[in-house]
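Sequence and structure are no longer studied apart. To make this concrete, we show below a single chain and its fold as tokens.
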Amino acid sequence: MAHYYDSIPESIRKLTNQQAIDRYVAGAEVPARAIAGLTTEQLLAVPVPGTWSIQQIVVHLADSDLTAAYRMKRMIAEERPLLDALDETAFAARLGYEEQPIREVCEIFRLNRKLLTPILRRQPESAFERTAEHPEVGTVTLGQVLRTYAYHVDHHMEFLKKKREMLGAPL
């Protein structure tokens, strides 16, 4: 999306729509693999004060991915829908991310991507130019939202890997 989309590497922005879908679905298994072998204490540890724990990162990925899937479905089904903004900090602070059953969170993430992928694959190329209005970033295309979330996992995995290393449990 406009502000976040601008930070996405050029290599992701240049993907064809089918390549972006492939990357999106390939990310379905990443959170579960990223937390494999971690104890509850490691999942909840905050090795860098003022940042999220590994668990909070993974639950954020799931929450934002569910929102993204809903947005993409609306962009496919509706004409220029108005999307809502998401306050990720408020979600993490008020929704009990540290209490979420992390294995189920990873499974929901995986299934959400697996269920959306066939819908995306059935779309004609023109569908990826369909637009929506986001209150914070303006007009976005389906292709931009897809690429944003194809990259979103990679973005957060950088932080997660560093936290694992700090906890003595590198990937």
Remarks:
- The first strand starts at residue 131 and ends at 134.
